[in-house]
Amino acid sequence: MTLLSWPLAATIGAGALLAAAIAVATRFWLQRRRRYESSASVADAYDRWTNDQLLERLWGDHIHLGHYRNSGRAPSGHQDFRAAKEIFVHELVRWSGLDRLPAGSTVLDVGCGIGGSARILARDYGLNVLGISISPAQIARAQALTPAGLSCRFAVMDALALEVADASVDAVWSVEACPHMPDKQRYADELLRVVKPGGLLAVADWNRRDPADGAMTRRERWVMRQLLEQWAHPEFASIRGLRQHLEQSRYAGGMAVDTDDWTRATLPSWIDSIAEGVRRPGAILGLGPGAVLQGLRETPTILLMHWAFATGLMQFGVFRGVKPGW
User: Fold this and answer.
1) Helix or strand or coil: residue 139?
2) Quick one: pLDDT at residue 27?
3) How much is the pTM?
4) CA 71, CA 81: separation in Å to the nearest integer?
5) What band does 50 get if pLDDT is binned at 50, 70 and 90?
6) Distance in angstroms (rounded) separating the CA atoms of residues 167 and 188
């Protein structure tokens, strides 16, 4: 009988272990969906993502995609994942006009995560920021990460029932929060209700292809169901649909909303988020075996997100506007 050489046996063994890990993770992925049930299910999902520390270990301070276009890629073509996230914040600031606000202007960050954007807005632009999230764990972490003396604070709050006075902030900023909102019109109303006349709107969103641009195929319907059910999303708005919600809001005052599609600029984020686990293995291994399984559990959804954005099923929309004055 011919015996396998040690290197070949080791390779087969490693492959078998990898296949077993993928099988376990896939079963876990299919059985442990995070379907949207209410605002409490969104809060619970983000509390878990924050408390297990995996997302922060891999994504850093910014729980949003990065911006890769016109951002000085290295000759190798690779741009640092975390640097791309900071670049995204600066790109949205410039595109929306927030960089023209006087120092000390007030900004409400709706869906602030663990405060990465809020700290940049305060530190680099001199803005006075209130960041809100429905997740108590996110707010606690944002507070812990924010240096004393920085002009930003954080509070637990529901974006569909903002505890903020009418016409009281100079700008509202919201990045990748809309997918968790069951009532897109109410979300738009609340954003615009709190903005002063002459104030600014800056929104970035994961958007679905507008139904007017083509019905979903059977494959796309299956993918869309996973994107909704895996990460506690009730529904995605289209770019056209969210713009209409904003412009038709009773608080818009005739505001015109400009939009753009940043899909190409943000698309590398999905694969980069997986590659971070290879570049920074200690970030996962340092949290124990459960973190490895959790990382594998998120991978199918990330790959489906990449496919959806790459094929046009999803788009990365950005929205800006100036609320008309009295």
Assistant:
1) helix
2) 57
3) 0.88
4) 12
5) confident
6) 14
Q: Give the gyration radius of the chain's Cα atoms.
A: 21
Phi-psi region of 152 (alpha: psi -120 to 50; beta: other; left: phi over 0): beta
Backbone angles phi, psi at 146, to 5 degrees: -95, 120
pLDDT greater than 70 at residue 1: no
Residue 286 has pLDDT above 80, yes or no: no
Cα distances (angstroms) measured from residue 286 to each of 20, 140, 273, 277, 289:
22, 22, 18, 12, 9
Q: Answer yes or no: is pLDDT of 223 > 50.
A: yes
Which helix (DSSP H) or strand (DSSP E) does residue 25 occupy?
helix 6-31
State the residue for tokens 């904003």: 246
CA–CA distances in Å: residue 210 to residues 11, 159, 202, 215, 216: 47, 24, 21, 8, 10
Contacts of 72 (CB under 8 A, 6+ apart): 79
Look up residue 124 and give its two tokens.
């680099």
**Residues 120/90, Cβ–Cβ less than 8 Å:** yes
Q: Which helix (H) or strand (E) holds 52?
A: none
Residue pLDDT, tens place only, 19-33: 555 555 555 555 567
Residues 6+ away with beta carbon under 8 Å from 233: 36, 179, 180, 227
